[in-house]
Amino acid sequence: MARGKVQMRRIENTTSQQVTFSKRWTGLLKKVYELSVLGNAKVAVIIFSQKGRLHEFSSNSKIRKTIDRYCRSTNDAATYQANMEQYILEAIRTMSWILLNRRNPTDGGSARAKSEQH
Amino acid sequence: MARGKVQMRRIENTTSQQVTFSKRWTGLLKKVYELSVLGNAKVAVIIFSQKGRLHEFSSNSKIRKTIDRYCRSTNDAATYQANMEQYILEAIRTMSWILLNRRNPTDGGSARAKSEQH
DNA sequence: ATCACTATTTATAAAAA
DNA sequence: TTTTTTATAAATAGTGA
Questions:
Q1: Chain A neighbors of B8, CB-CB under 8 A
Q2: Shortest CB distance from B84 goes to which of A50, A87, A89?
Q3: d(CA A56, CA A45)
Q4: Which domains are delineated in chain B?
């Protein structure tokens, strides 16, 4: 906008791409903030710029809350559960190995102590 | 904007709040899309409107990818890990109980078979 | 990266359909 | 709820510090 229309394609020039990204990110943040206030809504925005830098905004102080809520409400929960299962499976395998290699099942092993630090 | 400045506070009138939300969400989507194209960035936006309705957008077809990347890269990973630990801890307790109550440690138990279905 | 300027393009509030 | 209209408010591209 301004001084000529913008073509909707990737900006090749690195410098101007970064300038545009910075300006538009600022503008976007304002829009998101306004929407969350006016509409009394919970919002989370996550952006990875081309350089891999993380930008984020959340109307909650905890962006995780919105994300978690998302994870629970979307069909993509299948992916979420699949990831979770991998973690759990790994933990179970570790625990199994520990238990199977212990002499006395009743004394507290280090693995157990560690897991209960939580 | 237009026909008078907007006060930055929650719109009490339900109808006009919804109209404003709908319009601004549309505008926001466009902005986010433009930013992702111009800046060649990966973007995810999640909004829960007051009614609890989920609105989302992602420049990836899989919004989960951006979210997962977020989870791994942010400091809030502490929260993420804490949640994960709870799941793992529960799994370990279950597995421990199963293992501790088995007669023969070398035959395949049902719990193990189940966990390896993944 | 950010800030200022500013001509233009966009977004949108209000009203009505 | 969604769309159209349209007067205005906002956002921003290009430029230079």
A1: 34, 37-38
A2: A87
A3: 5
A4: 17-59 (3.40.1810.10)
